[in-house]
């Protein structure tokens, strides 16, 4: 069945899709859109939260990547997403680790990927799926992780080049909108000092968030928060869930929200909702 509305999301590691866009993805699947997820690495360098799985870590058995591939499949099922690919095929580019880690020097790490080589792999997906909308992180990678920064660079390059017949293979396609994920600081402020995990004392301690005026789009996917939380639970090597809060291996509590926020970087915005922000990714 041809899909009228098609969206492509580009994420760095297994877990990012659920953390940043899980409710949005579940909503658009439920509304009959085609939702395609591209994940750029297998997350091989991640911490491992459950002690009984610690043996999987990079510095021990180095089997975390395939294990997280399985977690991602369960998370996608919870969101209703049945179109998932790893950029260039599973394991093509390796998790780079946090900024400054020795793993940033691994020859196969995503942060060292050749930009046009990686973008050509993504253009191949863009020209197959023909999405009106592409979603990824901002140029800071949302919180400064090298793989997130590289995902932005590769996705933006693919957005620029997918309509260029002299670049890559396949029939050119021009996506109409490019969004980056965003968290308004005023929304995040509400989570300061709350929840069942380690509590931050100020919004700056979260290490992400942007001024509200930079946020153009609010997606109300509260009806799909349950699916998002189920998807988050699938990523148990990376995070813990308690009620509507989750925590990564640093145990800092973050709210799992049904409202998800974006900034439109390219394309025409749709009509504003009650808060002055557009209410949909397709206009
Ligand atoms: C959400 C996200 O992008 N997670 C990444 C991140 O994980 C962090 C990393 O292990 C860090 O050392 C911890 O302190 C922090 O709590 C983790 O969230 O980086 C990993 C390595 O690149 C990556 O696998 C994980 O998906
Ligand atoms: Zn990530």
UniProtKB/TrEMBL annotation:
Which SUPFAM superfamilies does the protein's record reference?
LmbE-like
UniProt keyword annotations, A-Z: Hydrolase, Metal-binding, Zinc
How the cofactor binds, per note? Binds 1 zinc ion per subunit.
What domain of life does the UniProt record list for this protein's source?
Bacteria
**UniProt enzyme class:** hydrolase
Q: Which GO terms describe its molecular function?
A: N-acetylglucosaminylinositol deacetylase activity
Cite the EC number. Answer: 3.5.1.103
Stored InterPro entries:
GlcNAc_PI_deacetylase-related, LmbE-like_dom_sf, Mycothiol_biosynthesis_MshB
Q: Does the keyword ATP-binding apply?
A: no
Which reactions does this protein catalyse?
1D-myo-inositol 2-acetamido-2-deoxy-alpha-D-glucopyranoside + H2O = 1D-myo-inositol 2-amino-2-deoxy-alpha-D-glucopyranoside + acetate
Q: Is Cytoplasm given among the entry's keywords? A: no
Reported cofactor(s): Zn(2+)
Which annotated residues bind Zn(2+)?
Answer: 13, 16, 148
Question: What is the recorded function of this protein according to its Swiss-Prot or TrEMBL entry?
Answer: Catalyzes the deacetylation of 1D-myo-inositol 2-acetamido-2-deoxy-alpha-D-glucopyranoside (GlcNAc-Ins) in the mycothiol biosynthesis pathway.
So what family is this one in? Belongs to the MshB deacetylase family.
Q: Extract the HAMAP family matched here.
A: MshB (MF_01696)
What's the protein here called? Answer: 1D-myo-inositol 2-acetamido-2-deoxy-alpha-D-glucopyranoside deacetylase
Its lineage reads: Bacteria, Bacillati, Actinomycetota, Actinomycetes, Streptosporangiales
């Amino acid at each position: 069945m041809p899909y009228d509305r098609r969206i492509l999301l580009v994420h760095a590691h297994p877990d990012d899709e659920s953390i940043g866009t899980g409710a949005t993805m579940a909503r658009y699947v439920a509304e009959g859109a085609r939702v395609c997820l591209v994940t750029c690495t297998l997350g091989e360098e991640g911490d491992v939260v459950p002690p009984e799985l610690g043996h999987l870590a990079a510095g021990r058995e180095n089997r975390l990547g395939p294990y997280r591939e399985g977690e991602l499949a369960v998370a996608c099922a919870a969101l209703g997403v049945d179109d998932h690919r790893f950029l260039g095929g599973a394991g093509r580019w390796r998790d780079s680790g946090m900024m400054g880690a020795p793993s940033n020097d691994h020859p196969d790490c995503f942060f060292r990927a050749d930009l046009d080589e990686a973008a050509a792999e993504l253009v191949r997906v863009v020209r197959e799926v023909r999405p009106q909308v592409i979603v990824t992180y901002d140029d800071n990678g949302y919180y400064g992780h090298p793989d997130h920064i590289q995902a932005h660079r590769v996705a933006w390059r693919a957005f620029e080049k997918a309509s260029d017949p002299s670049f890559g293979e396949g029939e050119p396609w021009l996506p109409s909108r490019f969004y980056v994920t965003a968290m308004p600081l005023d929304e995040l402020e509400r989570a300061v000092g709350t929840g069942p995990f380690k509590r931050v004392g100020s919004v700056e301690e979260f290490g992400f968030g942007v001024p509200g005026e930079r946020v153009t789009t609010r997606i109300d996917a509260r009806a799909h928060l349950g699916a998002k939380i189920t998807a988050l639970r699938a990523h148990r090597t990376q995070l813990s869930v308690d009620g509507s809060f989750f925590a990564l291996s640093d145990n800092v509590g973050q709210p799992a929200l049904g409202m998800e926020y974006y900034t439109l970087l390219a394309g025409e915005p749709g009509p504003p909702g009650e808060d002055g922000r557009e209410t949909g990714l397709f206009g």
